[in-house]
Design goal:
Number of helices: 1
């Protein structure tokens, strides 16, 4: 993984997976997936992160890394 950045002013998490140029993007709910010309995933944007991570009980989902 190249870089992870949280933008507090727009409440978005950006996960950079590659240095490849972005050719197109697809929206998938609260995520925008950016792809290179050869269809490899380059960047993931998670919009409204606080809402994306919220649980029905008012807490936050636990992130699990493997």
């Amino acid at each position: 993984m190249k870089k992870i950045h949280y933008s507090k002013d727009i409440d978005a998490l950006l996960i950079e997976l590659s240095d490849s140029a972005i050719a197109y993007a697809e929206e998938d709910g609260k995520m925008i997936l950016h792809y290179s010309e050869d269809d490899k995933l380059v960047l993931i944007e998670i919009l409204d992160l606080a809402q994306f991570m919220a649980t029905d009980e008012g807490g936050f989902k636990e992130l699990v890394y493997s």
